[in-house]
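Aim 2 progress update. The chain analyzed this quarter is reproduced below.
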Amino acid sequence: MSSALYSATLAAFKAQGWAYQPVAGMEVIEASFEAHHAKVPLHVQIHGEAGIASIVARTTLTVPTTHRLVVSELLMRTNKELNIGNFELDWDDGIVMFRVTNIFPGGHYDQRLIAGLVHTAIGETDRLTPFLGEVCRTPKGELLLLRIPDLMKRQDLLPPPIET
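Predicted structure tokens:
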């Protein structure tokens, strides 16, 4: 039997019109979104009894072993500026992920909040992707010359503002 939080999460995806695939036997949803810079794979895991939703988006770029230290600096500096969620690097596989988790106390599961967490994960992953690409395209011999704080100031790598 599914938890109320999992049911609310499914309802949030349906209300947004998002395509998704539930993972059989688990309270997990897999999805993929077309963002401005890249396709963003998404994994949502629900821990129903605890009232916890964990949303993980990942980049489709794999960070070469030679570039992982510099990418770690990029992620650390990016995380410092975030208000919600954080970036992680799977050191062994070179996969960059954005994780945001929320605890829903007292059985109150707000579908708008769930959708907002998904939007945050997709948006932050998409925003980071071109910066990550710049680092990964830098030749190994030039990595010492790459200044991450200067790279992060580049406005041309940001997606355009959302028009409402």
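Strands lie at 21-22, 28-34, 39-47, 52-62, 86-90, 95-103. The chain has a mean pLDDT of 94. These observations will guide the mutagenesis experiments scheduled for the next reporting period.
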